Amino acid sequence: MAQMNMIEAIKDALRVELKRDPGVLLFGEDVGKVGGVFRATEGLQAEFGEQRVFDTPLAESAIGGLAVGLATQGFRPIAEIQFVGFIYEALDQMFVQAARLRYRSGGRYNAPIVFRTPFGGGVKAAELHTDSLEGLAIQTPGIKVVVPSNPADAKGLMISAIRDNDPVFFMEHLNLYRAFKDEVPEGEYTVPLGKANVVREGKDITIIAYGLMVHTAIKAADELAKNGVSAEVIDLRTLVPLDIDTIVASIQKTNRAIVVQEAQKTSGAAAEIIAQINEKAILHLEAPVLRVAGPDTVYPFALIEDAWLPTPARIVKAANQTLQF
Amino acid sequence: MPNLTDEQLKEVMYRMVFTRTWDDRAVNLGRQGRLGFYAPVSGQEGTMVGSEYALTKEDFVCPGYRDMPQLVWHGLPLYQAFLYSRGHQHGGQIPEGVNVLMPQIIIGAQILHATGVAMGFKLKNEKRVAITYTGDGGSSEGDFYEGMNFAGSFKLPVIYFVQNNGYAITTPFAKQTAAQSIAHKALAAGIRGVKIDGMDVLAVISAVQEAAEIAREGGGATLIEAVTYRFRPHSMSDDATKYRTKEEEQEWTLRDPLVRFGKYLESKGLWSEEDTARVKEEAKAAVNEHIKKAEQTEKMTVAGLIDSMFETTPPHLEEQKADF
Q1: Tens of pLDDT along A190-238?
Q2: Mutation site, A73, A88, A100, A109, interface B, largest B CB count within 10 A
Q3: Name one Pfam family in it (chain A) (predicted).
Q4: Residue of chain A whose Cα is closest to the Cα of B318
């Protein structure tokens, strides 16, 4: 197995699928010649040609609409939206046109599209480059939402997303792109959509997270362990479909849980997860399930973002509150 | 003048009269509650029938919400058009081999789909053309500019067909843009732009044939602005007397595409009032048959709806079915 960072793992997944399926196309702003602003597609145009991997004019709605039109003609588009804040320009095409195509046509057409976008804070980027907008997507019927936390998952989930016959919003955390290298299986490695991963086993409390927050949660778990608290950490991997069974199984064991998300607190993934825990596991709970999240403000780029983002200390505090309830 | 045989000219007239009769009947069916949302088409038969007739069945139609006639003449069974109006999913289940998308509600979204479809044709080296429709209001949407700009940049085989009927629901064209014409907007995208009389079905056929030929030969996209008029309100819940004068409506009635083309065919001895009467009867019978078929189609269920969201229904949706 090769050692790769997340960017290399994503590129590897894209290459595997471009090679395997001539219907796979990859396009967006600056993805062709230079391989995107983060070089996730570097070298792919040289390898597969300008017909398969190409730059578009700068217009996110048209990038989304192009993908939908191509999907109706049997292609499998991978459309890159350069930074997460730019999806606002493409919301109709992503969350209405692609997400409703199967319903609107009674299954005659479908949209096997991956909308890739980098997101997530802590890298001192410009305004509207690093927000966490998964909440918009999870409330939208008809689109799957994937948020990998490590290189191997990024590759395996990306290949599954490309092969999926429905649209997938694939969110790549900026702060994980080059954070670390890990072993990544070669070739056609897949991780199924809708299956969470218990990344650390524990018995006292369950910490549910996704994306970069998985790593923040692990740091918190290390801190908790120093005080003799054994925390289980679940990496959701995909928010839609949500693997509620893995969450419930964990809570049946720990009887306590907290949910960590980088996004603003209200009406996000954490709120939905807690609602489902209430529906399926309330009798196993010894304490209310708390959220550790960003406050309900705009995302403050650069200067105070580190203070804004959930930290291991905030997770430890919430865990202790839950344990002492 | 397009190069059409006498039989083809008669076929165009047949389709226009059929469409007018269908529209009259649909308005009544709407009032009876047998159709849902319906956008009337009378007055625009020249642009709708003519533009579709100029293409081949292999070409691909991405319509706006009013463009049901193009879909039906391209091959969508009429009862499915009625089912779509009623909110039944089978209305959008386009039969295999019929190259159309469902009517689009978000004004302008289909412009980008046609651009993508055209790119698909180009990538597959198919000599096919995509056509998409919008109105004068739609020409103000960002998607309109984005689509044309992409088509210019990638040199795509696509026709952007704007039916300028003078009003975006109630807003008059004069308030829509300060541009001299919609056709001028093609210049900014580096594609062809032409403006035609949309009440002249032969002018419509000529313009679309020429645009399609250029597109098929690799010459890229064309924006066609066809000036037309809808005789009826925007929809059945709109009152056109609040924003249009009787005089203006009467003036446009004089340019009725059916009357103009009918007179031309009569002068050539190809059409008569009896022909019109016969087609009307045929159309009425067809509408009756298809509305019955629509009404007899198996009803939609919420469980079926749930299963139409994804290829494989995920567990959370499977669970939600239990409530229905």
Answers
A1: 999 999 999 999 999 999 999 999 999 999 999 999 999 999 999 999 9
A2: A73
A3: Transket_pyr
A4: A241
Scanning B83-102 for CB atoms below 8 A from A yields: 89-94, 101-102
Q: Please tell me which of the candidates A66, A244, A245 has its beta carbon nearest to residue B119.
A: A66
Residues of chain B with C-beta less than 8 angstroms from the C-beta of A245? 315
Q: Mind listing the pLDDT tens digit for each residue in A18-44? A: 999 999 999 999 999 999 999 999 999
Verify whether the Cβ–Cβ distance B106 to A245 is below 8 Å.
no
pLDDT in tens, A115-131: 999 999 999 999 999 99
Average pLDDT over residues B78-105: 97
